[in-house]
Design a protein that fits this description.
421 residues, alpha/beta, Beta Polymerase, domain 2, Rossmann fold, 3 domains, six-stranded parallel beta sheet, four-stranded antiparallel beta sheet, 14 helices
């Protein structure tokens, strides 16, 4: 069985496709169960963020398993599977684990080294675990990936100069306007990204921060934290009319702000300039808003350029992070091989023990003779198997270890290796 990842991200897919492929949190349980219900998939974790949608699975057969995931993603996006063929990337076994480690470490993010992705990796695994769609193969990879992410951020400076999606959105606003002092800022969404944006805005000296959220209570809690004020989505029209800057980051899954709403807001504010930064995927803001006079609309694509700028400050750290990934991948292989060796050693000893007992029983009915033979043959078997067992365990994780295990399984007709357990 193979660990496989199939997905697409900001590097190879336009934001329009990322939107269609995104799986919001409320749809995640259904998606996970739909995956493991397919013929060739037994475990599944879905990692869906504003930058990527990836499916990690345990496949009973590689190519059919990849097809299962590809068709699932095509159905999610409402596309023909063949239309995705050139956009989806696929990794399996060690390459899949290495990719996951790089994702958790922040090397595969739009903003290299950003902190949010590690929490998203952890949450995706927890969600799958809660739904019962993960198992030993996928869980081990995700558990170690989280360790890799922590090591990367504590042992290197990869995150020292990094900007998160939320701070990048605020930085973009500051860059375009020069300063946020005296500016009225509307934050739509009080989730993790919205909270971080609100805190960053407060630190950037925004004149007034207004929080709009579907849950008024959650909006009020965040507003109190940043000394702003809260409104429900029912008060969005008035809040838009008063806003110089709008930052949106909900998980609504559909457009919240139509062009007509912005046109009305601009009319009410005498067409004073408005900056709108939409970091949600799928988008919260109708792309047509960019055509409204006086409005500047920036979306997730605008963050890519900022990510390239901040990357220069952290490029020297990437090599060290890759060293950590290599170390952890070696450890993953060694532990996996050791687990795979255990059934071989157990099966070999059980096979030899069955032969030993059979021969002792054939020696006759004299209890004293049988006891003596039992003790002697047991000691002999232990001595004979000691060195092969030690060498087999020492070779775990190497090509030689695989050769030893395969040879023993073939010569003694032992059960095939398994990665269960």
């Amino acid at each position: 069985m193979s660990l496989v990842v199939v997905g697409l991200n900001h590097r190879n897919a336009p934001v329009e496709l990322l939107e269609r492929m995104a799986i919001p949190g409320k749809a995640l349980p259904k998606a996970l169960h739909a995956l493991v219900a397919r013929e060739h998939l037994t475990e599944a974790v879905v990692l869906s963020t504003c930058n990527r949608t990836e499916v990690y699975v345990r496949a009973t057969r590689f190519h059919p398993g990849v097809d299962d995931v590809r068709h699932f993603l095509a159905e999610t996006a409402g596309l023909d599977p063949d239309a995705l063929a050139d956009l989806l990337y696929t990794f399996h076994d060690d390459a899949a684990v290495s990719h996951l480690f790089a994702v958790a470490a922040g090397l595969d993010s739009m903003i290299i080294g950003e902190h949010e992705i590690l929490g998203q990796v952890r949450e995706s695994w927890r969600s799958a675990d809660a739904e019962g769609t993960t198992g030993p193969t996928v869980a081990r990879a995700f558990r170690q990936a989280i360790e890799v992410g922590k090591r990367a951020r504590t042992e290197t400076g990869i995150g020292r100069h990094a900007v998160s999606i939320s701070s990048a959105a605020v930085a973009l606003a500051v860059e375009r306007l020069g300063s946020l002092e005296g500016r009225r800022v509307l934050v739509i969404g009080a989730g993790d990204v919205g909270q971080r944006m609100a805190v960053a805005l407060s630190g950037a000296g925004a004149g007034e921060v207004v929080i709009a959220n579907r849950s008024p209570e959650r909006a009020a809690t965040l507003a109190e934290r940043v000394r702003g004020r809260a409104v429900g989505l029912g008060g969005l029209a008035d809040a838009l009319a008063g806003a110089d800057v709008v930052l949106s980051s909900t998980s609504a899954g559909h457009v919240l702000i139509e062009r007509a709403a912005i046109e009305e807001a601009m009319r009410r504010r005498d067409h004073r300039a408005m900056l709108v930064v939409d970091v949600a995927v799928p988008r919260d803001v109708d792309p047509g808003v960019a055509q409204v006079f006086g409005v500047t609309l920036l979306d997730i694509d605008a963050l890519r350029a900022m990510g390239e700028q901040s990357l220069q400050q952290r490029r020297a750290e990437i090599g060290r992070v890759r060293e950590i990934i290599t170390e952890e991948l070696d450890r993953y292989r060694l532990e996996r091989s050791a687990r795979e060796m255990a059934p071989v050693v157990t099966a070999l000893r059980a096979h030899v023990e069955d032969l030993r007992r059979s021969e002792v029983e054939r020696a006759g009915a004299d209890p004293a003779l049988r006891d003596a033979l039992d003790a002697a043959t047991r000691a002999l078997v232990n001595k004979l198997l000691h060195e092969p067992t030690v060498r087999l365990k020492q070779a775990a994780g190497t090509d030689r270890g695989d050769l030893y295990a395969d040879a023993l399984a073939e010569l003694f007709a032992l059960p095939p290796l398994t990665d269960e357990g």
